[in-house]
Amino acid sequence: AVKVLTTLRNHWKKTTFGVCLLSWGGNWLYGKHCDDLLRRAACQEAQAFGNQLIPSSMPLKKATVFLNPAACKGKARNLFEKNAAPILHLSGLDVTVIKTDYEGQAKKLLELMEKTDLIIIAGGDGTVQEVLQELSDANVNLLSLCVQAAFSKIPIGFIPLGKTCTLSHTLYPESMNQVEHITNATLAILKGETVPLDVLQIKGEKEQPVFAVTGLRWGSYRDAGVKVSKYWYLGPLKTKAAHFFSTFKEWPQKHQAALMYLGPTERPPEEPEEKLSRPPLYVRLYRRLRLYWSPPSKEIPQEVTPEDWEELKLSTIELSIATRNRQLDLTRTEDFMDIWIEADTVSKGEFVNRGSQKMRDPHTCPEGSQHIQASRCILQLPEGTEGSFGIDNEEYEAMPVEVKLLPRKLQFFCDPRMREQMLHATVQ
């Protein structure tokens, strides 16, 4: 024992390195063991759903998964196959996986939409936005899709696998463990609780509309945040460095525009679902013959009341147009989106500090910002305006746009605990 201690003392550098290596290895193995326990518990819970008896005449529920393998720096596919796929298969779902890394997904999506009972998006914010956008790229407007009962009632599940997963803050409890977060999200799909989410339709003069479930950002904080990764060599200081160096270009940084908007709209009461039986054949034939021999007379168009648009000239360091999906209120009587206009009188020190906060929560706004509630708005930019919009963390060229709120158009699965919190919060 004395000889061993003497050897360790004489080679203290190697001893220290060995102890650190063993400690790290033990901690890594313990973490892997805990992850395996989480996966096993989740699979056992999913097995309970799969063991439920269903009538022989009832077909299996079909789930279409849109998986972005490039999310989370290329780790999304492995994360999905290890943590989410076993749960889905054990639950008794008929699962079809579509990878969103090749052209033509829109056509594939449309072929499957009529045959699927639920949609699952596995990725990050960009994947959610991409799936919505694929519909419009295939000349299928999301609004017209959602108006049809066959499509608007298809629930959507979200499995957070990307670097930024804004929706997960609304749908699932916070978790520092990635495996636990993914398994909880997948189990929430099986439990069947849903919440309605708003969608923003963002349309330029000639462009196809873009759809967002989070919102649009335009300004200096967004521009600086995009460049943070360029300063990776500065480690934890890279965020402050990106915002600090952006102040060298011009100061103060002002974004000027004209804004027209309409106020909130009253939320109509929810009507109970009614399944209308198809009329007999002789009734349908009679109706068609009556329409043929006595076509309906053309109605005189009624005068449309002019909409009460508000106009505003703005100069801001950042403009944000966001849905209320982050602060869901299930008992709200009005539908609106939030427009935040931040003051352009900001010191360089405040800009750097707020920039770090914006990286954690992009739609947070400081006190003194102008807040507008609107159901529709038109953003006019001066000629020659450069820069980019951030729409659900995806970059688009800045241009004049019309933003329209599509209230409660998508049904997303959520954790029952989160839905319970929303109901209690609204009651209080």
UniProtKB/TrEMBL annotation:
Recall the GO molecular function terms of this protein's record.
Answer: acylglycerol kinase activity; ATP binding; ATP-dependent diacylglycerol kinase activity; ceramide kinase activity
Outline the extent of the DAGKc domain. Answer: 58-206
Report membrane topology: Peripheral membrane protein
Pathway(s) of this molecule? Lipid metabolism; glycerolipid metabolism
Q: Which UniProt keywords apply?
A: ATP-binding, Kinase, Lipid metabolism, Membrane, Mitochondrion, Mitochondrion inner membrane, Nucleotide-binding, Transferase
UniProt similarity note? Belongs to the AGK family.
Q: What is this protein called?
A: Acylglycerol kinase, mitochondrial
